Amino acid sequence: MMDAWMGCKERIGESDIWFTLMNFGGFNTTAEYLGGRDWKDYWVDLVANRVPWEDIETMLERSMANLCQRNTDIRKGDHRCYTYLYDTITVHVKDHLKSLGFPPAERRRGRISDVPLHCTQYDYSGSEGQCSTFCDCHTSILESMGSVFEKFCLESCVDYYQEKFMGCCTASLILDEALETAIMNVADEIKEIYVAVFPEDRFAADHIRARFDTFHNHELDFMRNPTCEDSDISYDVTPCTEGDMNMEDEDPCAGLSGKAVRKCKKTQKKGGYSAATNCSGLSGKQLKKCKKKAKKGGQ
Asked: How far apart are CA 165 and CA 35, in angstroms?
């Protein structure tokens, strides 16, 4: 569809839709932002030439590629990342709903979660009375992201966040540089277009753009390299595209799944599976201490 649009957008001015809009749209055809230009000519030029269609095309292509790729964290079957990411968003929304005091819709069947309660409770102590519905709370949710990342650094919560939030599908999205560049370019250009048409809203547009930059510079950076001070807690941030779907027999991670394969990949990433062979049979803090010593050459 985008290919067809890219091929015909230069002829958009020939469409009768402009006359329909002028007749029924109630637009100000002498507005100041037009700079004396004809209303139709201004908007035809904007739609055809100023909207960053190439970046939008890249953004859509990379998004679809990431969503439709195979989730290589799951070794059996043909599981796709759109399912994992949907589940991730659903779980995240439910956690925030509960923290805000809104009971989420739940299926009646299903096992009781064994995730520690404190891993899914976020601090909204400063937002009392600000949210009458979940949709009213977007500002509070963004401001609470620091509380979310604090949970990442709790040893009792690591398995939950690795599995539910930091799978290979998430890694593919957040490490996709082409997607990131396209999103940033689209955000910049759309903001400039909006401000040109509605100059009175420049402050609001600048504020939204600044919030986007804050997310990009802090939250996204943390997700790309989740590190915790004074702790050896770490996460496996390996894109699905780097997962070998046709692994050879000698692959030390072959046959593993779920948490086991993630731990194996993490061990390989830190210097090879053999570095941790002397730690086999250990678990919890003992396993972490053993791996830490092996990494430093103490084994």
From this structure: 48
